[in-house]
C-alpha cells in the first residue's frame, strides 16, 4: 500500500519533467484498474480453490526459495535447466469409451500463455501412474510406454515398465523437449497434443493403458498429468505485467459472462 | 562544530540518518495480490533511506557523479540537491503464482530485495 500511494500522488507531478507526460496518468489509471479488479475475499478464495498446485510445483518453489536464502542461484540446479520460469499446464484430455480397451491416450494442453519472447530450454510430461489394481490381467513381463506427437506420430520418448515389480504409484517423466523445438509445427492453435501408447515386450500390439495404471477416471486434480515447460526470460520481468495479464483475462471472462447472460435473456424473450 | 560523543554520534541538533537499508515488510495479502500469488504471501523487501551528505562514505559506493553532486550540494545547498539514497544491489525471490490461463507458474523475479544501499 505504501508504493501504491507513492505512484498515485507523484504520477501527475512527475509529468512536468522530461518523462513521457502520460506515464503518471497511465500508472495511476492502471492502479485504479488494479484496485477495482481486486475481487472480494470470498471470490478470491473461490478462485484460489479452483486452482490446485501440483506437489511438484510446490516442491520446486520450496527448493529454489530455500536455495535463494542460502545465497545459491537456482539456475545452478540441473533440474531447472538454467530456467528462471517453470510453467505447469494441466492435462485437459479425457478417457472415453469406458468399456473398451484404452489403447491410446491423448493428452491435451492449452499452451496459449507461453510467450514467444521467452527462450524455451526444456519440457517434460509428468504422468501419474496408479498402482494397477487389476495388474493380474496383464501377463507378467516388461512393458514399454511410448509418447508420440498426435499430428506426426513421431516418437518423442519411451520408457520400460515392469508392472509386477512396480506396484507403487508414482510419476513417469517423459521428455518432450524435442517437440517444443519445432513448436509451431506441433501445436494446433494453442493446443499441444501428445499421445501415449503401451506395448508388451518386443511385440507391437498395443496394450490397455488402464491395466498399466494410466486410467484417468476418478483422478483428483493433483493426480492429473502436467506438462512442465522450462523457460528463460532474457529481459527483466516486472510484476505489473502479471497484474496486467490478470486484469485482461478477468475482463474477457466478465465480457463472456455478460454476453452469455444477454444471450440467455434474448432466448427467454423469444420463448 | 558539534562534539562527538563516545559512540561517534553528535549531540545537539537533530541529525538525519545517513543513507542505509531499512526494513520494509511486504504483505501480498494486504496488497490484494493473494488471488494470484500462491507463495510467498509476504517477504522482507527492505528500502533505502537517509541522507547522502558530504563526505560520502566509501561503503555507499558513490558514483563519481554522486561525489561531484554531493560536493556541489555541500558548497551551495540551494543550487544543487544532495545525491539520492537508492538500492545499489538487489537480489531475486522465488514466486509461485497462477497466470492468466490458470496455470501454476514458478518464477524467479529479479530485483525484489534490497541488499545494499548507496548514493547515486
Descriptive notes:
The complex is a heterodimer of chains A (271) and B (120). Chain A is an alpha+beta fold and 271 residues long. Chain A has helices at residues 2-14, 22-37, 41-50, 55-69, 177-181, 183-186, 239-270, and strands at 85-90, 104-110, 119-129, 142-149, 155-162, 170-175, 187-188, 191-200, 226-232. Chain A has 7 helices and 9 strands. In chain A, the strands form 2 sheets. In chain A, strands 2, 4, 5, 7 and 8 form a 5-stranded antiparallel sheet that branches. In chain A, strand 4 and strand 5 form a beta hairpin. Classes of the chains: A alpha+beta (271), B mainly beta (120). At the A-B interface, helix 3, helix 4, strand 1 and helix 7 of A face strand 6 and strand 7 of B. Strand 1 (85-90) of chain A pairs antiparallel with strand 7 of chain B, so a sheet runs across the interface.
Provide tags for this entry.
A: 271 residues; alpha+beta; four-stranded antiparallel β-sheet; globular; B: 120 residues; mainly beta; three-stranded antiparallel β-sheet; two-stranded antiparallel sheet; 10% helix
Shape of chain B: elongated
What is the multimeric organization of the chains shown? heterodimer
Shape of chain A: globular
Strand order of the largest sheet of chain B: 3-6-7
Q: What is the number of helical segments of chain A per DSSP (H or I, 4+ residues)?
A: 7
End-to-end C-alpha gap of chain B = 27 Å
Give the integer mean of the pLDDT values of chain A: 74
Through-space gap between termini of chain A: 51 Å
> How many runs of DSSP E, i.e. beta strands of chain A?
9
Amino acid at each position: 500500500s505504501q508504493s501504491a500511494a507513492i505512484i498515485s500522488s507523484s504520477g501527475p507531478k512527475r509529468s512536468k519533467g522530461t518523462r513521457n507526460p502520460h506515464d503518471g496518468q497511465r500508472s495511476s489509471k492502471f492502479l485504479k484498474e488494479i484496485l477495482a479488479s481486486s475481487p472480494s475475499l470470498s471470490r478470491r478464495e473461490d478462485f484460489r480453490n479452483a486452482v490446485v498446485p501440483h506437489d511438484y510445483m510446490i516442491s520446486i518453489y520450496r527448493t529454489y526459495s530455500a536455495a535463494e536464502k542460502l545465497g545459491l542461484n537456482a539456475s545452478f540446479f540441473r533440474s531447472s535447466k538454467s530456467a528462471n520460469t517453470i510453467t505447469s499446464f494441466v492435462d485437459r484430455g479425457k478417457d472415453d469409451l469406458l468399456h473398451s480397451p484404452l489403447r491410446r491416450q491423448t493428452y491435451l494442453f492449452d499452451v496459449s500463455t507461453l510467450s514467444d519472447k521467452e527462450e524455451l530450454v526444456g519440457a517434460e510430461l509428468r504422468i501419474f501412474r496408479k498402482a494397477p489394481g487389476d495388474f493380474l490381467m496383464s501377463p507378467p513381463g516388461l512393458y514399454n510406454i511410448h509418447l508420440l506427437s498426435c499430428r506426426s506420430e513421431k516418437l518423442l520418448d519411451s520408457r520400460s515398465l515392469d508392472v509386477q515389480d512396480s506396484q507403487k504409484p508414482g510419476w513417469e517423466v517423459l521428455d518432450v523437449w524435442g517437440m517444443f523445438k519445432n513448436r509451431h509445427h506441433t501445436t494446433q492453435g494453442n493446443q499441444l497434443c501428445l499421445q501415449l501408447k503401451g506395448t508388451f515386450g518386443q511385440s507391437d500390439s498395443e496394450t490397455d493403458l488402464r491395466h498399466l495404471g494410466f486410467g484417468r477416471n476418478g483422478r483428483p486434480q493433483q493426480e492429473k498429468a502436467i506438462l512442465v515447460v522450462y523457460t528463460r526470460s532474457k529481459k527483466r520481468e516486472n510484476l505489473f505485467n502479471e497484474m496486467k495479464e490478470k486484469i485482461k483475462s478477468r475482463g474477457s471472462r466478465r465480457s463472456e459472462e455478460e454476453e452469455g447472460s444477454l444471450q440467455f435473456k434474448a432466448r427467454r424473450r423469444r420463448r | 562544530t558539534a562534539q562527538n560523543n563516545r559512540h561517534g554520534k553528535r549531540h545537539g541538533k537533530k541529525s538525519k540518518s545517513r543513507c542505509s537499508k531499512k526494513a520494509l515488510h511486504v504483505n501480498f495479502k494486504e496488497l490484494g495480490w493473494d488471488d494470484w500469488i500462491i507463495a510467498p504471501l509476504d517477504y522482507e523487501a527492505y528500502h533505502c533511506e537517509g541522507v547522502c551528505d558530504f563526505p560520502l562514505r566509501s561503503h555507499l559506493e558513490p558514483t563519481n557523479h554522486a561525489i561531484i553532486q554531493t560536493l556541489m550540494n555541500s558548497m551551495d545547498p540551494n543550487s544543487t540537491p544532495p545525491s539520492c539514497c537508492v538500492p545499489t544491489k538487489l537480489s531475486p525471490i522465488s514466486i509461485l503464482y497462477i497466470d492468466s490461463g490458470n496455470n501454476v507458474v514458478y518464477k524467479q523475479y529479479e530485483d525484489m530485495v534490497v541488499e545494499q544501499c548507496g548514493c547515486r
